[in-house]
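In this section we walk through a basic example: taking a raw amino acid sequence and producing a predicted 3D structure, encoded as C-alpha coordinates. The instruction is simple. Fold the sequence below.
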Amino acid sequence: MKTLATILGAAVLIATGSAANAISLSPNGLGEVLIYPYYTVNKDQDTLVSIVNAGDTGKAVEMRFREGYNGRVVLQFVLFLSAHDVWTASLSSIADDAGVLLKTSDTSCTDPEIPTAGVALRSADYDGNGTVPADGGPTSITRTREGFFEFIAVGDIEAGSPTDAAITHVHDGGPNDGAPPACDDIPPVWDQTDTVTPSGTLYGSAAIVNVGELERLDPQAPVTLEWLLETGAVRDGRDGLKILGDGELTKAVTVRAHKVSAQAREKIEKAGGKIELIEVVPRKTPQQRKAEEKAAASAAKDARR
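The resulting C-alpha coordinate sequence is shown next.
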Protein backbone atom coordinates (compact mmCIF):
# COMPACT_ATOMS: atom_id res chain seq x y z
CA MET A 1 0.00 0.00 0.00
CA LYS A 2 1.68 3.18 -1.22
CA THR A 3 -0.08 5.69 0.99
CA LEU A 4 2.61 8.16 1.98
CA ALA A 5 5.15 6.92 -0.56
CA THR A 6 7.69 9.70 -0.88
CA ILE A 7 5.65 12.46 0.77
CA LEU A 8 7.78 11.63 3.78
CA GLY A 9 10.47 10.06 1.68
CA ALA A 10 13.35 11.20 3.84
CA ALA A 11 11.46 10.09 6.93
CA VAL A 12 11.01 6.63 5.43
CA LEU A 13 14.70 6.57 4.66
CA ILE A 14 15.38 7.20 8.31
CA ALA A 15 12.55 5.36 10.00
CA THR A 16 11.99 2.23 7.93
CA GLY A 17 14.86 1.93 5.49
CA SER A 18 18.55 1.26 5.74
CA ALA A 19 20.50 4.30 4.58
CA ALA A 20 23.50 3.54 2.41
CA ASN A 21 26.06 6.24 1.83
CA ALA A 22 27.43 6.34 -1.69
CA ILE A 23 30.81 4.63 -2.00
CA SER A 24 33.66 7.12 -1.74
CA LEU A 25 37.43 6.95 -1.32
CA SER A 26 37.41 10.26 0.50
CA PRO A 27 37.48 9.97 4.32
CA ASN A 28 35.19 12.99 4.64
CA GLY A 29 32.56 11.54 2.27
CA LEU A 30 33.14 14.09 -0.48
CA GLY A 31 34.23 13.20 -4.01
CA GLU A 32 33.85 13.52 -7.77
CA VAL A 33 32.22 10.10 -8.39
CA LEU A 34 29.39 8.59 -6.35
CA ILE A 35 28.46 4.93 -6.87
CA TYR A 36 25.29 3.54 -5.34
CA PRO A 37 25.61 -0.26 -5.47
CA TYR A 38 21.95 -1.27 -5.53
CA TYR A 39 18.43 -0.07 -6.21
CA THR A 40 15.17 -2.02 -6.37
CA VAL A 41 11.42 -1.44 -6.68
CA ASN A 42 10.47 -5.07 -6.05
CA LYS A 43 8.18 -6.17 -3.19
CA ASP A 44 6.45 -2.77 -2.84
CA GLN A 45 9.72 -0.98 -2.20
CA ASP A 46 10.94 2.38 -3.44
CA THR A 47 14.53 3.57 -3.70
CA LEU A 48 15.13 7.14 -2.55
CA VAL A 49 18.27 9.01 -3.55
CA SER A 50 19.89 12.35 -2.82
CA ILE A 51 22.96 14.15 -4.12
CA VAL A 52 24.43 17.29 -2.57
CA ASN A 53 26.86 19.86 -3.92
CA ALA A 54 28.78 21.05 -0.86
CA GLY A 55 30.91 23.44 -2.89
CA ASP A 56 30.74 27.17 -3.51
CA THR A 57 30.45 26.74 -7.29
CA GLY A 58 27.92 25.00 -9.52
CA LYS A 59 28.47 21.54 -10.99
CA ALA A 60 27.51 19.50 -14.05
CA VAL A 61 26.95 15.86 -13.05
CA GLU A 62 26.41 12.87 -15.37
CA MET A 63 23.64 10.70 -13.87
CA ARG A 64 23.62 7.07 -15.04
CA PHE A 65 21.19 4.37 -13.93
CA ARG A 66 22.10 0.78 -14.89
CA GLU A 67 20.06 -2.43 -14.74
CA GLY A 68 21.41 -5.28 -12.62
CA TYR A 69 21.58 -8.16 -15.12
CA ASN A 70 24.41 -6.80 -17.28
CA GLY A 71 24.91 -3.17 -16.26
CA ARG A 72 23.34 -1.66 -19.39
CA VAL A 73 22.29 2.01 -19.09
CA VAL A 74 18.52 2.41 -18.60
CA LEU A 75 18.47 6.15 -17.89
CA GLN A 76 21.04 8.89 -18.41
CA PHE A 77 20.94 12.67 -18.06
CA VAL A 78 23.04 15.62 -16.90
CA LEU A 79 22.15 17.34 -13.64
CA PHE A 80 23.24 20.94 -13.05
CA LEU A 81 23.62 21.70 -9.34
CA SER A 82 24.05 25.27 -8.19
CA ALA A 83 26.30 26.02 -5.21
CA HIS A 84 25.13 24.17 -2.06
CA ASP A 85 22.27 22.61 -4.01
CA VAL A 86 20.45 19.42 -2.97
CA TRP A 87 18.69 17.14 -5.51
CA THR A 88 16.40 14.29 -4.49
CA ALA A 89 14.43 11.70 -6.43
CA SER A 90 12.57 8.43 -6.03
CA LEU A 91 12.51 5.21 -8.06
CA SER A 92 9.11 3.54 -7.90
CA SER A 93 7.37 0.59 -9.54
CA ILE A 94 4.95 1.50 -12.34
CA ALA A 95 3.12 -1.82 -11.85
CA ASP A 96 4.03 -5.32 -10.64
CA ASP A 97 4.72 -6.55 -14.18
CA ALA A 98 6.08 -3.24 -15.50
CA GLY A 99 9.16 -1.07 -15.18
CA VAL A 100 10.41 1.80 -13.05
CA LEU A 101 9.53 5.50 -12.84
CA LEU A 102 11.99 8.13 -11.65
CA LYS A 103 10.29 11.19 -10.15
CA THR A 104 11.65 14.38 -8.65
CA SER A 105 10.03 17.56 -7.36
CA ASP A 106 13.33 19.46 -7.48
CA THR A 107 13.73 22.39 -9.85
CA SER A 108 17.46 21.98 -10.49
CA CYS A 109 18.24 22.00 -14.21
CA THR A 110 18.60 18.69 -16.08
CA ASP A 111 19.44 17.87 -19.70
CA PRO A 112 17.15 16.52 -20.99
CA GLU A 113 14.44 17.96 -18.77
CA ILE A 114 12.68 15.51 -16.43
CA PRO A 115 8.89 15.91 -16.83
CA THR A 116 6.73 16.64 -13.78
CA ALA A 117 5.10 13.22 -14.20
CA GLY A 118 8.53 11.57 -14.11
CA VAL A 119 10.53 9.54 -16.61
CA ALA A 120 10.44 5.76 -17.10
CA LEU A 121 13.62 3.69 -17.17
CA ARG A 122 14.18 2.30 -20.67
CA SER A 123 15.11 -1.07 -22.20
CA ALA A 124 16.58 0.18 -25.51
CA ASP A 125 20.21 -0.41 -24.51
CA TYR A 126 19.70 -4.13 -23.88
CA ASP A 127 16.71 -5.25 -26.00
CA GLY A 128 18.22 -4.35 -29.40
CA ASN A 129 15.81 -1.49 -30.15
CA GLY A 130 18.41 1.22 -29.58
CA THR A 131 21.88 2.01 -30.87
CA VAL A 132 23.43 -0.74 -28.72
CA PRO A 133 23.05 -4.40 -29.83
CA ALA A 134 21.03 -6.72 -27.60
CA ASP A 135 23.18 -8.59 -25.07
CA GLY A 136 21.34 -11.92 -25.20
CA GLY A 137 19.73 -11.47 -21.81
CA PRO A 138 16.07 -10.93 -20.90
CA THR A 139 14.46 -8.18 -22.98
CA SER A 140 11.47 -7.42 -20.74
CA ILE A 141 11.15 -3.97 -19.17
CA THR A 142 11.03 -5.73 -15.78
CA ARG A 143 14.80 -6.11 -16.09
CA THR A 144 15.03 -2.44 -15.03
CA ARG A 145 13.40 -3.16 -11.64
CA GLU A 146 16.76 -3.55 -9.91
CA GLY A 147 20.28 -2.38 -10.61
CA PHE A 148 22.70 0.34 -9.53
CA PHE A 149 23.54 3.94 -10.39
CA GLU A 150 26.56 6.22 -10.65
CA PHE A 151 26.90 9.99 -10.55
CA ILE A 152 30.02 11.49 -12.14
CA ALA A 153 31.09 15.14 -11.89
CA VAL A 154 31.74 16.39 -15.43
CA GLY A 155 33.03 19.76 -14.30
CA ASP A 156 32.55 22.77 -12.05
CA ILE A 157 30.61 25.71 -13.52
CA GLU A 158 32.76 28.81 -13.70
CA ALA A 159 31.51 31.41 -11.22
CA GLY A 160 29.85 34.40 -12.90
CA SER A 161 29.50 32.64 -16.26
CA PRO A 162 26.23 32.58 -18.28
CA THR A 163 25.69 28.94 -17.28
CA ASP A 164 26.23 29.80 -13.63
CA ALA A 165 23.58 32.52 -13.88
CA ALA A 166 21.19 30.14 -15.65
CA ILE A 167 21.37 27.35 -13.04
CA THR A 168 21.55 29.38 -9.82
CA HIS A 169 18.29 29.34 -7.89
CA VAL A 170 16.54 32.70 -7.57
CA HIS A 171 14.76 33.09 -4.22
CA ASP A 172 11.78 35.30 -3.45
CA GLY A 173 12.39 35.54 0.29
CA GLY A 174 10.64 32.39 1.52
CA PRO A 175 12.59 29.52 3.11
CA ASN A 176 13.79 26.76 0.79
CA ASP A 177 12.09 28.27 -2.24
CA GLY A 178 13.37 29.37 -5.62
CA ALA A 179 14.18 27.94 -9.02
CA PRO A 180 16.85 28.40 -11.67
CA PRO A 181 15.87 31.20 -14.09
CA ALA A 182 17.00 29.81 -17.45
CA CYS A 183 17.43 26.04 -17.69
CA ASP A 184 16.48 26.16 -21.38
CA ASP A 185 19.44 28.44 -22.11
CA ILE A 186 22.12 25.99 -20.96
CA PRO A 187 24.18 24.56 -23.86
CA PRO A 188 24.70 20.77 -23.99
CA VAL A 189 27.47 19.60 -21.69
CA TRP A 190 29.68 18.61 -24.65
CA ASP A 191 29.44 22.21 -25.94
CA GLN A 192 30.06 23.78 -22.54
CA THR A 193 32.66 26.54 -22.40
CA ASP A 194 31.78 27.50 -18.81
CA THR A 195 33.10 24.36 -17.12
CA VAL A 196 36.42 23.88 -15.36
CA THR A 197 38.08 20.87 -13.72
CA PRO A 198 35.70 19.40 -11.11
CA SER A 199 36.46 19.68 -7.40
CA GLY A 200 35.47 16.84 -5.08
CA THR A 201 32.52 18.38 -3.26
CA LEU A 202 29.73 15.89 -4.04
CA TYR A 203 28.15 13.58 -1.50
CA GLY A 204 24.89 11.70 -1.27
CA SER A 205 22.87 8.85 0.14
CA ALA A 206 20.27 6.32 -0.95
CA ALA A 207 17.81 4.01 0.78
CA ILE A 208 15.50 1.15 -0.18
CA VAL A 209 12.24 1.55 1.70
CA ASN A 210 8.92 -0.19 2.24
CA VAL A 211 6.53 2.69 1.64
CA GLY A 212 3.62 1.01 3.47
CA GLU A 213 5.46 1.25 6.77
CA LEU A 214 4.62 4.95 7.05
CA GLU A 215 1.03 4.12 7.94
CA ARG A 216 2.39 3.05 11.32
CA LEU A 217 3.51 6.58 12.20
CA ASP A 218 1.85 8.01 15.32
CA PRO A 219 0.02 11.14 14.15
CA GLN A 220 0.41 12.61 17.64
CA ALA A 221 4.21 12.65 17.40
CA PRO A 222 5.88 15.22 15.11
CA VAL A 223 8.06 13.79 12.35
CA THR A 224 11.51 15.27 12.92
CA LEU A 225 15.02 14.41 11.85
CA GLU A 226 16.20 14.41 15.46
CA TRP A 227 13.53 11.93 16.59
CA LEU A 228 14.21 9.64 13.67
CA LEU A 229 17.96 9.72 14.29
CA GLU A 230 17.35 8.80 17.92
CA THR A 231 15.72 5.57 16.79
CA GLY A 232 19.13 4.48 15.46
CA ALA A 233 17.68 3.55 12.06
CA VAL A 234 20.35 5.68 10.33
CA ARG A 235 23.67 7.10 11.40
CA ASP A 236 23.96 10.28 9.33
CA GLY A 237 21.50 13.15 9.24
CA ARG A 238 23.75 15.72 7.60
CA ASP A 239 21.60 15.82 4.46
CA GLY A 240 18.64 17.06 6.49
CA LEU A 241 15.02 16.08 5.94
CA LYS A 242 13.44 16.68 2.51
CA ILE A 243 9.71 16.06 2.03
CA LEU A 244 8.57 14.91 -1.42
CA GLY A 245 5.05 14.74 -2.82
CA ASP A 246 4.18 11.32 -4.30
CA GLY A 247 1.39 9.12 -2.91
CA GLU A 248 -1.65 9.92 -0.80
CA LEU A 249 -1.60 11.09 2.83
CA THR A 250 -4.45 10.13 5.15
CA LYS A 251 -3.05 11.21 8.54
CA ALA A 252 -2.76 14.67 10.06
CA VAL A 253 0.93 14.87 10.96
CA THR A 254 3.25 17.67 11.97
CA VAL A 255 6.42 17.64 9.92
CA ARG A 256 9.57 19.54 10.81
CA ALA A 257 11.79 19.48 7.75
CA HIS A 258 14.50 21.39 5.92
CA LYS A 259 12.80 21.37 2.50
CA VAL A 260 9.24 20.65 1.37
CA SER A 261 8.00 20.42 -2.21
CA ALA A 262 4.86 22.32 -3.21
CA GLN A 263 3.00 19.06 -3.87
CA ALA A 264 3.96 17.65 -0.47
CA ARG A 265 2.87 20.85 1.28
CA GLU A 266 -0.53 20.72 -0.42
CA LYS A 267 -1.15 17.10 0.57
CA ILE A 268 0.07 17.45 4.16
CA GLU A 269 -2.09 20.52 4.78
CA LYS A 270 -5.10 18.98 3.02
CA ALA A 271 -4.89 16.03 5.42
CA GLY A 272 -4.98 18.43 8.37
CA GLY A 273 -1.27 18.40 9.09
CA LYS A 274 1.20 21.24 9.30
CA ILE A 275 4.78 21.98 8.26
CA GLU A 276 7.51 23.65 10.28
CA LEU A 277 10.48 24.59 8.08
CA ILE A 278 14.04 24.44 9.37
CA GLU A 279 16.89 26.47 7.93
CA VAL A 280 19.24 24.42 5.76
CA VAL A 281 22.87 24.43 6.91
CA PRO A 282 25.08 23.11 4.06
CA ARG A 283 27.91 20.70 4.85
CA LYS A 284 31.24 22.49 4.88
CA THR A 285 34.03 21.40 2.55
CA PRO A 286 37.51 20.62 3.91
CA GLN A 287 38.73 23.86 2.31
CA GLN A 288 36.07 25.87 4.14
CA ARG A 289 36.84 24.21 7.47
CA LYS A 290 40.57 24.77 6.99
CA ALA A 291 40.00 28.46 6.18
CA GLU A 292 37.82 28.88 9.29
CA GLU A 293 40.40 27.16 11.48
CA LYS A 294 43.14 29.38 10.05
CA ALA A 295 41.07 32.51 10.66
CA ALA A 296 40.28 31.44 14.25
CA ALA A 297 43.96 30.71 14.95
CA SER A 298 44.95 34.10 13.55
CA ALA A 299 42.30 35.86 15.65
CA ALA A 300 43.48 34.04 18.77
CA LYS A 301 47.07 35.00 18.03
CA ASP A 302 46.11 38.66 17.59
CA ALA A 303 44.18 38.56 20.87
CA ARG A 304 47.27 37.42 22.77
CA ARG A 305 49.34 40.35 21.54
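Looking at the output, two observations stand out. Residues 286-304 form the longest helix (19 residues). The chain has a mean pLDDT of 78. In the next section we compare this with other chains.
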